[in-house]
Batch of 4 targets.
Target 1
Amino acid sequence: MPDTANILVVRFSSIGDILLTTPLLRAIRHRHRDARITVLTKQAYAPLLSHNPHVNRIIALGPGQSLRSLAAEVRAGSFTHRLDLHDSLRSRALWAMAPGRWTSYPKHRIARALLIHTKRNRYRDRRPVPERYFDAARALDVSPDGAPPEFFLGADAEGEAALWLATSELASDRPLIAVAPGAAHATKRWPLEHWRALVSQIISGGSSVAIVGGPGDSSLGAALAGSGYGQVASAAGVFGLQTTGALLRRAAAVVSGDTGVMHMATGVGTPVVALYGPTVEPFGFFPYTHRATVLEVALSCRPCSSQGGPRCPLRHHRCMLELRPDLVYDSVRRCIA
């Protein structure tokens, strides 16, 4: 395979899914040093790859941008390989509008649906999603190296994070623990009273707490920061992806649900304590790193969905309620021991 390969990688969203493409991007770059690698993603997620040295170019899909204009850009790119790592109706429409050498990966939709609705695991492919992505690159002669995802940060983000920490009331001589209490779907959220109890234990144990999250988490972050524990400050909704990643990199450990923040933390090399409820490991989206502790409750009703939902189908939400703060704090303490 000549290193003149011109490769397009398509993954529109979301945070975790995009970061989980980076082991494949790294493998392609190492195998094909002079290849040109272009990633197509939504504009909102471009910062996840903006400083990735394995990527030559990002095509950012802007809000309201038509698929027709996107297809024209793909056709003009003269790509030798087109890797669809999303495999959605939109990406398949792009195949039709920009014909060429397209390949994708197994999403195992039937096995996933059977597991959700019958609780029977029919997955024969036990690989996590970052390794399934490699099926789309069969012609490129690459294989996983076992290393975690990568989230590269710019100097501006590093400086902004350092300034925020320096001007906050958090003591610089205490270990920093980052917590991400938000989630896009309600069933993935750990109860606020559990977060409050955990924060109290972390502070009592001699560490400080930084709360992180997106714009939708700002009120939750403020509520948690205002609980009166001291040594806790909220950056939820304050910063974009890059600076949030820089804060995560400075933490001794990160506590998060099954969210993008969890994958951002693995991408910057910070140990993660991940709280799982409605989703399970066979789906393929557990933290892709050995520096992670996954906490979950074995219940016959799990999984109840592939991405979480607005309410517990059985209205008890035991999968998250029964993850006790003491158990989570013990895992945090082991991370920073």
Target 2
Amino acid sequence: MKFTIRRKELLQSIQDVTSVISSKTVIPILSGLKIDVHANHIVLTGSNSDITIQRTIPNIVDEEEIITKMEKGSIVLPVPQFPEIISKLPEDIVDITVGENYKTVISSGTAVFTLYGQNSEEYPVIQHQQVEPHFSYHIKQLKSIIKQTVFAVSSMETRPVLTGINVIIKEKEITFTATDSHRLAMRTSRLEDSSIDEANIVIPGKSMQELQKVLDEKLETVQIAILNNQIVFFTDHLFFSSRLLSGNYPDTSRLIPNNSETKIQIYTRDFIQTIERAALLSNREQNNVIDLETKENNNIQISGKMQEVGEVTEQLPAISVEGNELKISFSSKYMLDSLKAMDHETVIINFTGAMRPFVIKTPDDESILQLILPVKTF
């Protein structure tokens, strides 16, 4: 096996697939990076048995030759050594040749490295050619949805199902929900031309974070297939599969209040900056809890207090404040995560009392919803 390739293209694909490779895998061969050389392309594969990522590099891109001198073959090379070598090579052209006993010579300019690879026959077989997509999805929209929900998954393994994003397909609508039982993030959108009518699955949050990194926004859509215990995403040059989490995801719809006693509309950026300042003097061991209080003339007051250190109070003009007077405490971290995920100039916050969950939305988009549980301090 041998090939000559431009270093930039090789390095980008290596970085995409090696992000999931772990030395702690129970399958030793998965601690390496698999390379397959075909007649007119090469395929790089990385896996940790939960997530598998494949990148295909064609030999010609935009009528420009990327790979030359190709001889078919397959090998598994050690990680992190192989990626580190490629990243440090002195020239843009890389020659890779595999000889007897999988001895691999990597050369570029005056630099020559030798690595000892492994037989790829022990590597798990990935049958992605046989996967038929159930629907396609706009890549920019999918990446936006991941950003708006994945931060709310639980980091605690005591309830494994909450470490994932619940995806429900029903009546031509797809809903993504994440919660750690203290906050909730939900995003809904229409689903066109789907061959699957209903689905209720849980995708690990870590898988969605990795998918967000490797999806190329230059492409318009990604194909998606839901299988028995995994979900698959693929484009012309990317194959991404993830196992699904087992267990019943809680019914979160009952957590969302239908009414509000106090409604605040405010400029998102100003609100974020005020909360960040208040969080400087709040208890970091308790999620930086701060207080919000409505004041006269459409003002709100944000304050933080740190015992034996100091306190801060700041008034902020809102666009509007409607309903009952309110004094409430909440995690500044949770609020900042939600506001930054909204990505909108203004937000509307509906409160149902000092000890009830409150909902954050944007004025003109009902498809995105954030919910946060307050903290009892009064």
Target 3
Amino acid sequence: MTIQQNLFDTSSDWLEHSLKHASSVLPEVSAELPNGTRITRRAVGVLELTPALIQPGSEVLILSAGVHGNETAPVEVLNGLLSELLRGEWPLACPTLLILGNPPAMVACERFVDANMNRMFHGAHNKQAYQGLPEATRARQLEMFCQRFATAHSGALSHYDLHTAIRPSLREKFALYPFVAGRKVPENQCSFLLKSQVETLLLQHSTATTFASFSSSQLGAESFTIELGKVQPFGQNDLSRFEGVQNALRARLQGNGLPTTPESTSDGEPSEAGRLMTFEVVHEILNTGKEFQFHVPDDAANFTEYQPGTVIWEDSETCYRVGNVPEAIVFPNRNVPVGQRVCLMIRPVHSPARQQVP
């Protein structure tokens, strides 16, 4: 029996197996590559990769995609990297947890089945509103796998949760850095983003219930939610547009580690990391109920800029206007339940500055 058959039965690869068994409960199973790398299938869409020899100081990676089922390109990127590893094209050098977050939603080609799973982490899966939902069970399960994985390995942990956006974006690729009070974005992580062709960073302003916020706050990981372009169905992605992140992740898996970049060059010019365009959150807009009015068109692109004084939303008690400097909008979506985020208003900052307690 081949390694693929042991891990994925009659399916040709990890993605096909995950879609075929999307709602199944499967036993753990392991296989070993000729070079000694061990691959353990913890559950459908969850693989733990362990190299034969872990070098002292080796980093530890969690790579996830498909938390939203219709965001298919990052799923195809991770599946492609795993296929290269299984074919023996390069050796794995660091412990890695690979996750396809929401296989049932992937099968349905929908963002989610019952509720947005990327609002169910950091313990939010225990909320009464989510009780009994398969996506809440899956979020709890993924937290458990990540906690066990992080406990088993002592190296510096990074988590990259890969997404594509519902709507167009004036900045096609951008990353979100979860809020942890007093934390500064490491220069080498900024360099990694740039090598991934991600040139924009958004500093979040409060602890969230996203997958990346969970791993950042609970596991001490350097975590990023990375938006890589526009949602497309399986088979319709132009994967050449994702070569930057694919090449950067492949280098990390091969043990090249994070790039090292000085804070400035010898001639005083900003370093590569210093050229990352960075934004901060000014205001989070929530759906306040039946009197809520959102004055942003449904076709507004991410990073659309609004001038001072523009009314963005209002209800019977509040009217939010853009402040003294222009503000841009990200993730606008009026069709969310009461109490959930409709969008974020953001503005540029000069550098990835230390986050302050709001």
Target 4
Amino acid sequence: MPHRNFVVMGKTPSPGRLLEHPVDEPRFDVDLIRRRVSGELLYGADIPSGLAKRFVGTDGVIPAVFAAFNRRREASNFFTTGEDIAFRLMPLLMLTGWKGRVFSMVHASQDGNSLKMAKLLGRRLVGGYFTVSTMQRDILLRETGLDADQVEFLYSNVDTAFYDPALVPPSDAPDYVFACGQENRDYATLAQAAGGGSWPVRIQASGFFVAEDDPNAVLPENVEISRTRLSFPDLRARYAGARFVVVPLRDVPYAAGVTGMLEAMAMGKAVIVTDTAGMKDYTGLDSLIRVPPGDAQALAAAIRRLWDDPEACRRMGAANRDWVVANARVELYADRIASRILNQ
């Protein structure tokens, strides 16, 4: 009889994040889930160069699908970290008459292909889908005919034991505005807003180039962009040294930007965030400053307000830390998912 739980992800994890107590790295949500369900982690192997990359891709999704499929006879449950894996794995499992259940995070259910696949796959193998956006949950329920108890919203997560301001020597005078991340960030609007003031702005974004938005644009002198990857301790130090954090976003219907925002909040920082449709579950907090998408004037006014009010930064940052500890700790996230898998 199958009895094993498998946790399936596309990217190859760093070895350090698979330690029970990682050194100088945040705990890995996927590995915490694996430990709680006494399961095994499966992931896509590194893809060789050449033709294999053209047909398989480089993100490890297809190898992860087949790694899971090859272990199906041992499995009672699969948990996948995204619909890109789940919606490829489930048809293969159906063809074999597999009797277990698939649980999966679903990040962007508004995508037409994802919705088509969710409808075609139906509900027979669905142990539960999880979303970190109620908008995404509602789209799935409305468009696919799934039962209400098959799609569950939960807050996204951050390791508050790693992203803890107490671990970084305090700065007497935080001297810059910080922004980081890549997915659907609106750094062009941030750069435009920064051009109206003298505040130093540091952007950590390896995928951002001004030419993507305006080939004739010139960055303001007070804006610094780094396109290199940071270690986790270095990223934590960047948060710690900032007076506050800006999360500028394009208006998309899923929770793009949530990881960076929760990291900043865990570090006790005040946050200015674009009030996008997909982030409504997070941006309603009184301890945040919200600005409309693409509004450089509103963003500049919010930056000026916080830059001139260190006490507001301290107060909002403390409230943000408290909220994350109460609602978005990685342990809570892992426990919710593991409990659903174990009690199905």
